[in-house]
Amino acid sequence: MNVGQTKVRVLLIAVAFFIPTIVYAQTNNPSSGTMEESVNLSPAIEHINPEGISAAPHFAPAIITSSQKAVYVSGMTGQDNQNSNPLEEYETQLRQAYEKIGITLKAAGASPQDVVRQRVLIVGISQQHAAVTRKVMQEFYGNARPTSTATGTSGLFNPDLVVEVDVTAVLPN
Predict the structure, then answer these.
(1) Which helix (H) or strand (E) holds 76?
(2) Checking DSSP bridges between strand 62-65 and strand 70-77, what pairing results, if any?
(3) Which of 2, 106, 139, 146 has the most CB atoms around its CB within 10 Å?
(4) Which uninterrupted H or E stretch holds 6?
(5) Bridge partner list, 77
(6) Is 146:101 a contact under the CB 8 Å cutoff?
């Protein structure tokens, strides 16, 4: 695959991921352009929905924090809990990464509702990855909506790994 084909593929994947989000936001957030009206699950987090930016059901355009402490969780992958053997498929690896993030957040005194930023690195990103990622994010975060970036990458440190997730959380005052 040449560079031009790769760019077209990435663009198509991005469109497939964001168009349903924009449509959902426009049909389910008639008050676009105001502060987020949903309940903030952590008192240290305020969701911002600027005018002209569509709200998404599974992530926030921006977040303001009032907390003095933050937790920066390193990239977690789909390896087993001893970090030795990568699990088989994308969804299984993604769930394992979020499980390890949950354990780490708990050890730091935080929860998924305190997460304000996440990055998801996906090897060989495809349209199927976008749907699975949204589903697993919803299960992990519930009603919380951190800011989020998902991007494709050519590989991770272990060639059998297909996804890595890192997050930043703020601790409640």
Answers:
(1) strand 70-77
(2) unpaired
(3) 146
(4) helix 3-28
(5) 164
(6) no
Question: In whole angstroms, what is the distance from residue 103 CA to residue 168 CA?
Answer: 14
CA 169 to chain centre: 12
C-alpha torsion 79→85→88→89, nearest 10: 20
Q: Please state, in angstroms and rounded to a whole number, the distance separating the CA atoms of residues 71 and 111.
A: 10
Using DSSP, how many helices (H) and how many strands (E) does the chain show? 3, 6
Burial call 11-20: b when 16+ CB within 10 Å, e when fewer: eebeeebeee
Q: Say if CB 154 and CB 125 are below 8 A apart.
A: no
Q: What is the pLDDT of residue 88?
A: 79
Is the Cα torsion angle 166, 118, 57, 109 positive or negative in sign? positive
Amino acid at 24: Y
Q: Cα-Cα-Cα-Cα dihedral of 42, 107, 91, 81, to 10°?
A: 180
What's the pLDDT score for residue 40?
55
SS3 state of residue 129: helix
Helix (H) or strand (E) holding 153: strand 147-153
